[in-house]
């Protein structure tokens, strides 16, 4: 890939992508230069730059903020993604330019109750963040050369909380693992949705590996202090990914 456009380059995942060294040529414009909620700016940027692939990380990802301001979350996560997709579709139709598009979605598009969700399971998000990311997925599905990555990640070097639930399960992956997975899927010809996750385990066990002093608690205790719905078991079936990465 000659030129890769990265949206959300100032975010945690975006910064990790830039620093990784996996990607030879990344364009990471500021949100002022490429505001995905403004179609004219998207059009201008794509007209002025030759783009071979896009890694779309830009999102309103704070769940509490999505709950407090769902209109903003919708505008960024769903509508902004749709604006970006619309401009790419124009190039597919008129220039036969099938840009490779990687969309970073979330395990939150699944119900988050029974776990072990596969790509073909029903998508009924459990909070507003998940719904807005699912809206973005709907737009991305219109493209010819796309990969929707459903995942959840964390930074082992920045686990800011002191307690974690022993009865909350997920398949969260370290941020560096996800960056490498994105690099692999960027080169793959795979089109569609893919789950990228680790082995199912409790959040407490996962974080304790990297922060030994973390204390166990119950999910109900965490829920008392947040204003958004949380999953009981958001673990993923990543068999498809395991086959691809070999």
TrEMBL record:
Recorded coiled-coil stretches: none
InterPro entries xrefs: NAD(P)-bd_dom_sf (IPR036291), RmlD-like-bd (IPR029903)
SUPFAM superfamilies: NAD(P)-binding Rossmann-fold domains
Stored Pfam families: RmlD_sub_bind
Domain of life: Bacteria
Residue ranges annotated for the RmlD-like substrate binding domain, each copy included: 3-153
UniProt-recorded name of the protein: Ligand-binding protein RmlD family
Taxonomic source organism: Candidatus Saganbacteria bacterium
């Amino acid at each position: 890939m000659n030129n890769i456009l990265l949206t959300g380059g100032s975010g945690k995942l975006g910064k990790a992508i830039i620093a990784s060294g996996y990607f030879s040529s990344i364009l990471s414009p500021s949100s002022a230069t490429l505001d995905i909620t403004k179609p004219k700016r998207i059009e201008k940027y794509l007209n002025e730059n030759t783009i071979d692939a896009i890694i779309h990380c830009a999102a309103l990802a704070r769940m509490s903020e999505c709950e407090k301001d769902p209109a903003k979350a919708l505008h960024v996560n769903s509508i902004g993604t749709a604006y970006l997709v619309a401009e790419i579709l124009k190039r597919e139709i008129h220039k036969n330019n099938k840009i490779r598009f990687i969309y970073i979605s979330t395990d939150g598009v699944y119900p988050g109750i029974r776990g072990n969700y596969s790509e073909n399971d029903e998508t009924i998000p459990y909070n507003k963040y998940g719904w807005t990311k699912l809206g973005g997925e709907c737009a991305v599905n219109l493209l010819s050369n796309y990969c929707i990555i459903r995942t959840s990640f964390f930074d082992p070097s920045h686990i800011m909380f002191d307690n974690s639930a022993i009865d909350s399960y997920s398949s969260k992956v370290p941020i560096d693992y996800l960056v490498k997975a994105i690099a692999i899927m960027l080169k793959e010809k795979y089109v569609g949705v893919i789950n990228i996750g680790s082995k199912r385990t409790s959040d407490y066990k996962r974080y304790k590996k990297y922060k030994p002093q973390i204390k166990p608690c119950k999910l109900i205790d965490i829920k008392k202090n947040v204003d958004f719905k949380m999953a009981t078991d958001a673990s993923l079936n990543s068999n498809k990914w395991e086959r691809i990465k070999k």
